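Worked Example 4.2. Consider the chain below.
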Amino acid sequence: MTAVVYEPPELIAEFEMKFDLTFPMLSDPESQAIKTLGILNEEYEPDSKYYGVPHPGVLLIDSSGRIRAKFAESSYRNRPDFADLINAAARLSVSE
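Applying the procedure from the previous section yields the following structure tokens:
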């Protein structure tokens, strides 16, 4: 598991230490990966301090780097259904 966020590395390092994270968080301050993955929250204008934030979600990527499943939500208050994630991951592991 890896998280991609638009915050700078310094803030990410503080967050990782504070919450003792065991997975990497990647800094994407220009939101290039976020845009490429199609998860940019376009609710915010480019001049907003929140511009670049992604929709919350999960991408399942196979060993060749292809996105095999995408679960993106419109609001940070919504999260993908855990059962759907487990089923998609199981299908991915069978097809690998």
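The mean pLDDT is 86. The CA atoms of residues 11 and 27 lie 9 Å apart. Compare this with Example 4.1 before moving on.
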